[in-house]
Amino acid sequence: MKTTSVMIVGVGGQGRLLASRLLGTVLTDEGYDVKVSEVHGMSQRGGSVVTYVRYGDSVYSPIVTEGEADYIISFEKLEAARYAGCLRKGGRIIVNTQRIDPMPVITGAAEYPENILEELKEAGFLVDDFDALTPALEAGSPKAVNIVLMGHFAACTSIGRERWLAALEKVVRPKFLEMNRKAFDLGYAGK
Amino acid sequence: MKKLLIGNEAVAWGLYHGGLGLVSSYPGTPSTEITEFLALHDDIHSEWAPNEKVAAEVAFGASLAGMRSACAMKHVGLNVAADPLFTLSYTGVTAGMVICVADDPAMHSSQNEQDSRHYAIAAKVPMLEPSDSAEAYAFARSAFHLSEEFDTPVLMRMCTRIAHSQCMVELGERENVPMKDYVRQPAKYIMMPAYAKQKHPVVEERTRRLAAYAESCPYNRAEYAPASEIGIVTSGCSYLYVREVFGDSVSVLKIGMPHPLPDQMIREFASRVKKLYVVEELDPILENHIRSLGIPVRGQELFSAVGEFSQKTIRDAFRAEGLMLEEPEAQGTVPPVPGRPPMMCAGCPHRGMYYTLVKNRITVLGDIGCYTLGAVAPLNALDSTLCMGASVSGLHGFNAARREETERKTVAVIGDSTFMHSGMTGLVNIAYNATNSTVIILDNSITGMTGHQQNPTTGYNIKGDPAAKVDLEALCRALGIRRVRVVDPYDLKACEEAVLEELAAEEPSVIISRRPCVLLKYVKAKAPLTADAGKCRGCRKCMKLGCPAISFREGKACIDRTLCVGCGVCEQLCAFGAIGGGEKA
Predict the structure, then answer these.
(1) Same-domain status, B153 and B68
(2) Residue numbers in B near A124 (CB within 8 A)
(3) In angstroms, rounded to a whole number, what is the distance separating the alpha carbons of residues B194 and B192?
(4) pLDDT of B585
C-alpha cells in the first residue's frame, strides 16, 4: 500500500495532541506501519503547530512536504491556508471554521483574511469546512472540537467506525469517554 | 511488547532496559522527555539537576560508584557540561555512562544551531546517532556495553525530528545489572598532571580501537543497489529522507556511529559506486572526513549547513544534479497569510513586569525561557538574549562599561530556574566587583518553557515529592546583595515603584517578580474580564500588553472569555474604566 500522509494543524493548545494520539492508535491497531511527528517547546505558546501522521506498509520520512498530504485536518481557518500548499492533487482539507487571531492581527500589524476559505475554494482546493464547535458544545465541552474533527475525518477513511471507537477508548480517560464518543459520532455523522 | 513511541521515550526505555540506575539532567527542548519518562520508574534514581554540568558530574559520580548512569541535555546544554566531558574522556568509567544530547536543526526552540558531533571528535569519545525510535531504543540500550567495553562515556546524539517523532518499537526486558565494586584507583580518577599525562595516550589508543570496532559495528551498514552508480553516505533522520526519495534504488552507507568513523568501510563503499554523495544536516562532518581520506565526494555544495532537511530538500538537490525524480504536485498555490508566532499566554505573570519596563524605556538584558517571548511585538521588551545566565553577567559588563549612564536605566531579567542554572554566579560577580546593577528574577515557580519541570526553587523534586526549597531572597542576600525586594507582577503600581526605586538606589539590587505560571494546575483562573464597548474609547492602551485574550474589533477592545484568566493587568491600564467584571482578589 502506498503511504498515506495526514497533517493535523492548528494553534498551540487546541487539543491536537489527543487527536494525533487517537489517529496513531487506530492506525497501529489496524497493523499499519505508522510515523507521527510533532514539535514541542517554543511552538506551543499560542503559535502555529503541525503534526504529521504517515501510514502504509513501510513508512520512511516522518514529515510531509509540499504537495504530499492526502488530508489536512485544521482546527482553525487561517492555519488551513498556511499549510494548504502541502496538499496533493486530489487531497482534501477538513477545517473547523473557528477564527483565532494571531498576534500580528491583534496588534494591527496584519489583517485576518476574513474570506480565506472561499479564496482557497476558488483557487481549486477541495475544502470541507464546518463548525466543529457547536457539536462539541452539544457533546458537552468546547474542548471536544478535536474529537469532532477526528470523527469527521474517520468517515473519510476505510477504517470502520467501531475500530475508531475502540481506539478512542484507549486514549481518553474513562471519565471523559462518553462525551468524546458523542463528539466523535456527531463529527462522523456530519460527514 | 510493541509500542508507538517518540524517540525520547524510546531512549528512556533503552537506557532503563540497559540497566540504568541513575539519571540526572537539566530540562531542554528537545531532550526533556528522556528524563521525564525515566522518572516514571521507581527502581532507579532520577533527578532534575540545577544545570547540565552538575547533571553530568552526578552521572560521573554514580558511574564511579559502580552504577550505570546517564544524563540528557539539549545541544547548548552540552556546552555547559563540556568541562566534565573532556576530562571524563580521560578517566573513563567504572559502570557505563551515557550522555544524551539533542540537537535542534531549524532552531524550533533554541538560540543556535550547533552540531554536537564536534564534541565527540573534540572530546575523543564515541557517539551513536539513531534514525528513528526503534534505533534510539537499541542504541541507548547497547551504549552501556560500549561504554564499559571501551572504558569511556558514550555520547548519544538525537535531533528534534527523531526526539519528537513516533514509530513502532519492540521493547525487551530490563537487564539485571549488579553494581560494580568501588575500588580506589588514583591513577584512573585523579586527573592531575602526573596521572593525566599517562591517560592521554590511553585515550588516543582507545580511539584507534574504537575506529577498528566501527568497521564491524552493526550500526554502520552498507546497503547496496547493484544497478545504481550512485552511493550516498548519510546518518540520522537524513537517512529516512534519502530512503523516502530513492527507496532502494541507490546504494547507501548508513552511519549509526558518527565518531569515530569506519575508514575501511567508507573506502570500500566509495570504490563500489561511481558517484559518491553525503547527505547530512548541519555541519559537513562526514563529508570532511571522507575528503580527508582522499576520496572525492559531493555534499554541502548541494545542500546547506542551515536548517532542517526533508525529503523535499533531497529531491530538489538531486533534481538539480540532473536525476529524474518525480516531484509531487500540489493542489494549488496559496495566498500569503499573516504569521502566527508563539507568544506569552493570557495571564502570564511576566507581562506586567515587561509592560512596566517598556513604559519606562528601560534597557533589558534578557535570558533563556518563556520570558524570551517578551522580545516580540507589541512589547519588544528585550535588548539581548545570549545564553543561560548571560542576562546577569552581561548586565554587569554593560554597566561596568558605561557606569552611571546605564546603571539607572538598565536591568537583567532571568527566570527562577535559569537563575539556579547559571544566574547566581553572575550575581555574585555584581556584588563582588561592584556595579550598581538591578537584576529582576521573574519567579514563576516552575521551569516553564520546557513544559513545567520542578527546580530547586519550587519545593518539589522530579517525582513531585516535597523537597528542600531555595529561599531566593536569602540566597541573593547571602551572595552579597543587600537590597532584595519581592513584587507581584499583576500589581502594575507596585512593579513601577519597585523598578524605579531600585534603579535609583546607589547599590546593586534584586527584584523578585513573583507569581506562579498560570498554566500550573494549582493556579485557579479567576472569572474572565469583559470590555464595555460603551465606555471603551478605542485608545488601544490595553493592546500594548500583547495579551492574546484582547483583540480590537470595530474600534473597540474585546476580550475573549475562553482565553482570559482574569489577571486584571489590563483593567489597571484602562483610564476609562471600560474593563472589569471579574472577581475582586
Answers:
(1) yes
(2) 331-332
(3) 6
(4) 46
Regarding whether B144 and B86 lie in a shared domain, the answer is: yes
Q: Note whether B105 and B196 are same-domain residues.
A: yes
Chain B closest-CA separation from residue A66 CA (Å):
6
**Residue A191 binned pLDDT confidence (cut-offs 50, 70, 90):** low
For residue B581, the model assigns a pLDDT of: 84
Say if residue B500 is in the same domain as residue B534.
no
Please report whether residue B333 resides in a domain: no
CATH code (residue A43): 3.40.920.10
- Based on the domain organization, do B208 and B228 belong to the same domain? no
Cell of A159: 477504517
Quick one: B359 and B503 in the same domain?
yes
Q: What is the pLDDT of residue A12?
A: 86
What total of structural domains would you count in chain A?
1
The CATH number assigned to the domain holding B277 equals 3.40.50.920
Structural domain containing residue B315 = 221-320
One-letter-per-residue 3-state SS of A34-102? EEEEECCCHHHCCCEEEEEEEEECCCCCCCCCCCCEEEEEECCHHHHHHHHHHEEEEEEEEEECCCCCC
In-domain check, residue B325: no
Chain A positions touching B311 (Cβ under 8 A) are: 61, 63, 65, 68
Q: A105: domain range?
A: 4-189
SS3 state of residue A107: coil
Size of interface A-B (CB pairs under 8 A): 194
pLDDT at B335: 86
Overall residue count recorded for chain B in this entry: 585
Of the given ranges (A30-34, A108-112, B149-153, B203-207), which has the lowest mean pLDDT?
A108-112
DSSP state of B530: E
Sequential DSSP letters for B416-485: HHHIIIIIHHHHHHHHHTT---EEEEEE-SSBTTTT-B--TTTTB-TTS-B-----HHHHHHHTT--EEE
Say if the Cβ atoms of A35 and B449 lie within 8 Å: no
Least Cα distance to B15 among B116, B124, B96, B78 occurs for: B96
Helical (H) or strand (E) element with A25: helix A16-29
Residue A44, pLDDT score: 66
Identify the segments of chain B with pLDDT beneath 70: 583-585
Last residue within a domain, chosen from B302, B320, B338: B320
Contacts with B, A 55-94, CB within 8 Å: 59-63, 65-68, 78-79, 81-82, 84-91
At A129-159, the pLDDT tens digits run 999 999 999 999 988 999 999 999 999 999 9
The answer to whether residue B107 is domain-embedded is yes
Look at residue B557 and give its three-state secondary structure: strand
Q: Best residue in B331, B344, B376, B563 to probe A by mutation, most A CBs within 10 Å?
A: B331
* Segment B144-185, tens digit of pLDDT: 999 999 999 999 999 999 999 999 999 999 999 999 999 999
pLDDT in tens, A45-65: 788 999 999 999 999 999 999
Q: Does B300 lie at the interface with A, CB-CB under 8 angstroms?
A: no
